[in-house]
Amino acid sequence: MFLFGEHAVVYGKPGIAMAIRPRVYVTVRRAKRPHAVSSPYIRNCFTDMGVSGSVYINSQIPSSSGLGSSAAVTVATLSAINDEFQLEKTREEIADMAFAIEKKVQKGRASPTDTTVSSYGGIVLITGTSRRRLPPVNLHIVIGDTLVSHSTSQMVEQVSELKKRHPDIVGHLLDAIEGVSLNAIHHLNNPKELGRYMDMNHAILDALGVGHPALSRLVLAARSAGAFGAKLTGAGGGGCMVAVCPKNQKHRVAKAIESYNCRAIMTGIDTEGARKEKNA
Ligand code: MEV
């Protein structure tokens, strides 16, 4: 899930993402004949790993929410294939393959942010092709899902169109997001300060045209209910927002989100990333 820098990351600016606890469980079994799979992400996982098998997915992450569910499913499927077929791929190779699959399915429009963070866990900083793990911090997070569907590639396209029409303005907005992200890195263990940067990042994303009334409502509701800060997360235009809260205000913030008939998820960091659960 993006903490800072969505959209700007598509233009080589830094992106900061955090692995959160709603998880995706994938079970893979060997099978002689390939099973028909409707998801292009999963089909590509088997093709790229050069094996065929059956797959069972249990996802706790709402799909198309902007929380990086396609990245999480792709990384988990590749990891499960890796274990089942003893292919000995490293975490880094899996992250790279997952990114290549996302990019292919999303027709070139993807940054490696969500696939990297799903693979490694914790907090990661992505800039261009470089990725760096940042020290994990225990933030109290509430996610609000507007339940408004959106398309990541459409939102990315929209920003690109705006950039063509107003190159100077959009250039400055992307630079401003970069400034927020680079400052936020130094305050990851100060949730109050981090909240201020989240508010700034949200305002710039609004200016880029990727906001939505439902996102604005939840962001304002979360702040009024005591959150340190709140912003949309992911592509915008619907999907999810994220709030960083004082521990004792988590429930209040979640209730405020639910009062708009939206889904609230109280969560925190996942530090382990993709992993084998058990030998079933
Ligand atoms: C979508 O979750 C985030 C974007 O920055 C696209 C990407 O990074 O792949 C809009």
Secondary-structure class:
alpha+beta
Mean pLDDT: 93
Total count of domains: 2
Assembly annotation? single chain
The set of bound ligands, ions and cofactors reads: (R)-mevalonate
Q: Using only CA atoms, what is the Rg?
A: 18 Å
CATH topology term of the largest domain = Alpha-Beta Plaits
Order of helices and strands: EEEHEHHHEEEHHHHEEHE
CATH class type of the largest domain = Alpha Beta
Strand order of the largest sheet: 1-2-5-6
Q: Helix proportion of residues, in percent?
A: 40-55%
Second CATH tier, the architecture of the largest domain: 2-Layer Sandwich
N-end to C-end Cα span: 29 Å
- Describe the sheet with the most strands: 4 strands, antiparallel
Portion in strands: 15-25%
The CATH superfamily of the largest domain turns out to be GHMP kinase, C-terminal domain
Q: Output the number of helix runs.
A: 9
- Which residues form runs of ≥5 with pLDDT under 50? none
Shape: globular
Number of strands: 10
How does this model look, in words?
With 280 residues, the chain is an alpha+beta fold. It folds into two domains: 117 residues, Ribosomal Protein S5, domain 2 (2-Layer Sandwich), CATH 3.30.230.10; 131 residues, Alpha-Beta Plaits (2-Layer Sandwich), CATH 3.30.70.890. The strands form three sheets. It has a four-stranded antiparallel beta sheet with strand order 1-2-5-6. The protein has a four-stranded antiparallel beta sheet with strand order 8-9-7-10. Helix 8 runs antiparallel to helix 9.
Considering the chains and any ligands shown, give keywords for the structure.
280 residues, Ribosomal Protein S5, domain 2, Alpha-Beta Plaits, 4-stranded antiparallel sheet, 10 strands, binds (R)-mevalonate
